[in-house]
Amino acid sequence: MRQGWRWFGPDANVTLDEVRQVGATDVVSALHEVPIGEVWTRAAVEARRDLIETTPPGRAPLRWSVVESIPIPDAVKRTGGAARAEIDGWIASLESVARAGIGIVCYNFMPVVDWCRTELDHVTDTGATAMRFDFETFAAFELHILRRPGAERDYAPEEQARARARFEAMGEGEIAALTRNIASALPGSTTEPMTIPGFRDKLAEYRDVDAARLRRHLVEFLEAVTPAAEAFGVKLTLHPDDPPRPLFGLPRVASTEKDYAALFDAVPSSANGMCYCTGSLGVRADNDLPRIARRFASRIHFAHLRATRREADPRSFHESAHLEGDVDMVAVLRELVAEDGKRGRSETIVFRSDHGHRMLDDLHKAVTPGYPATGRMRGLAELRGILHALGHPPERPAA
């Protein structure tokens, strides 16, 4: 297995030398500056690859091995195969990535919003901070800030009462921060930032898209792009929904073992793979993570390893330290190691320590929410320790 590190590009607050220092060998990145739907040119991809892979004297080499992500335009999610121009543009970006020698592409199919949190700096019992999704706060946002038409049908009367009390206790600053967290697109987001009126308008465009239709649109997208991926030698990896359940009245179709099984049955192409994210899948108690890894082992080319902790209301959760949440990380890695041992070196699984607590000096400087250096370094060290204990140490940086 190869140690990856998500890097947000030349302006990131973590440098490539710092990526080397944490022991990572592989960079997970994207052309985040390119607008959603615009084609990535081969020249732009190769320039970013060369920046990552040109090794200064005396430094360990890095390789850009995973693209996370090429955003899927909204029209594809709403209309599926009818969005032919957008799909062709996505394939053109995929070709640019392949020509640059990058063999794994992560993507998601979450409509309107992708990963969603109500707090970015929830204070834990250690004094470090973590990202959190609080169901009551989310309900207050949806019912009283967004005011989504028909939202009250999704909440019991007592839930509506608690949401109103929560909203009425918020000050203007908290309302503004909550709105930014949910509507303004978190780092690495593949959806557009929105104003509240724009948010409502976007939701209205999905009024006729239920789970069956969204799944059909995903299948149509994959039927169009997997032949190209096969020809280019690229593995596509679908990231789970985060959190893995419907939000804002919108369907989610990559939340469970059953969802992935249906997708792989519908599009059996070897290029149709999975980004195995323990944090996203682990939010649901009914997702048996080791079993999912075992069942879909051959489809896993990229793994996000992190843990979440469900709270008293299991619809609420926070990001835990990597070995302290609801995820049995040892059991998960045992399954990944078993699969990785069957593969050749060129097909080994790339993993990264996903998210991390904001801690130590990161508490006192600007960091990318969810991606502070020290918390992720702690997680990577813990994951590396498990792999050593399992007799499968990850690839080490070259001298």
Chart the SSEs and their pairings.
Layout: E1 2-6, H1 16-21, E2 26-29, H2 42-53, E3 63-68, H3 74-79, H4 84-99, E4 104-107, E5 119-123, E6 129-133, H5 135-146, H6 157-168, H7 172-183, H8 196-205, H9 211-232, E7 235-238, H10 257-266, E8 272-277, H11 278-282, H12 289-295, E9 300-305, E10 307-310, E11 317-320, H13 329-340, E12 350-353, H14 373-389
Parallel strand pairs: 1-2, 1-12, 2-3, 3-4, 4-7, 7-8, 8-9, 9-12
Antiparallel strand pairs: 5-6, 6-11, 10-11
Q: What topology, given as strand order, has the largest sheet?
A: 1-2-3-4-7-8-9-12
Distance between the termini: 18 Å
Per DSSP E runs of 2 or more residues, the count of β-strands stands at 12
- Name the helicity range: 25-40%
Number of helices: 14
CATH class of the largest domain: Alpha Beta
Radius of gyration: 20 Å
Q: What's the shape? A: globular
Mean pLDDT: 96
What is the name of the CATH superfamily of the largest domain? Divalent-metal-dependent TIM barrel enzymes
Second rung of CATH, namely the architecture of the largest domain: Alpha-Beta Barrel
GO molecular function: ferrous iron binding; manganese ion binding; mannonate dehydratase activity
Function: Catalyzes the dehydration of D-mannonate.
Protein name: Mannonate dehydratase
Pfam families: UxuA (PF03786)
